[in-house]
Amino acid sequence: MALLTEDLVRQMSNNGTRGPVVVNRNDVLTPSARSYLLEHRVEVVYPQGAVSTQQSAEGAKQTAAAAGPKYTTLFGAALQEKPEHMTHLKGNILVFKDHPRIAFRGFIDLLEADIMQSQLVVREAGYQSLCAELEEVLSFVRRFIRFDVLDEAVGEVHLCGYTPDQLREYSHYPERHFGQPHFMVSVNDGKAILAVNKLRTVVRQTELAAYKAFRDENGAVSRNDIILGLNRLSSLMWIMMIKLKAGKYPKESR
């Protein structure tokens, strides 16, 4: 009998990026391993003749005996059932739903929704190339939950053809690069600019949520890469607004 722990199935699935995970006869998946496989949608294969631990009463008893409590908390509690006011931080670790890391993930969800709303607005305004750029932004933002949960590094932010240095430079000196100085947004700027401006503010709110999620009691942060990535994304939003104001995006029919 092999006891398949969360750490082991992580290795077997290459941290959720490769599957399936093969569970042989008499293998026992621990509760945290099962939670991990479900959370990351890793395929589990039971070879012919193998018995699923989820279907085997004996396997369930072995799992309970070997694995102990089904859930743990950051404050040392051991639980067999997940309370409704708690949710998964990572694996079988539960936290309260107002935990800063969970709040940060909620802002990522909100940001994704606002990106898609902005895509509708700019597409209807005829800015097809901008809509495509926002699709690239959406793909980037959707990776942030993975960055958090799997402790993956964000890496250098290359978006819409800009390097990290260009994102900072062009957003700071727009007149030098686009012939358009900084400006105060007004209702007369039109729906496209107002939509991207709203999106920019949500990026900034998400960056602040990330700081709250990853700072310690002294203000130092453990995931500066996540905060920096969102900061560069905010710069990109401002560049998009500048380009709209300067007429740098062509209007195209759908």
Tell me what you see in this structure.
The chain is α/β, with parallel strands linked by helices and 254 residues long. It has 10 helices and 8 strands. It is elongated. The strands form 3 sheets. It has a 4-stranded mixed beta sheet with strand order 6-5-8-7. The protein has a two-stranded parallel ribbon with strand order 1-3. It has a two-stranded parallel sheet with strand order 2-4. The protein starts with a strand and ends in a 9-residue tail after the last helix. About 5% of the residues have low confidence. It folds into 2 domains: 81 residues, no CATH class; 146 residues, Hypothetical Protein Ta1238, Chain: A, CATH 1.20.1200.
Q: Could you outline the blueprint of secondary structure elements for this entry?
A:
Elements: E1 3-4, H1 6-12, E2 21-22, E3 28-29, H2 31-39, E4 44-45, H3 57-67, E5 71-73, E6 78-79, E7 86-90, E8 93-96, H4 100-124, H5 128-141, H6 144-149, H7 164-172, H8 174-178, H9 191-214, H10 224-245
Parallel strand pairs: 1-3, 2-4, 5-8
Antiparallel strand pairs: 5-6, 7-8
Helix pairs in contact: 1-2, 4-5, 4-9, 7-10, 9-10
Give the fraction of residues assigned to helices.
40-55%
Q: Into how many domains do the coordinates divide?
A: 2
The structure class reads alpha/beta
Shape: elongated
What is the helix tally?
10
CATH architecture group name of the largest domain: Up-down Bundle
Average per-residue pLDDT, rounded, comes to 86
Q: What's the N-to-C terminus distance?
A: 60 Å
CATH superfamily of the largest domain: Cobalamin adenosyltransferase-like
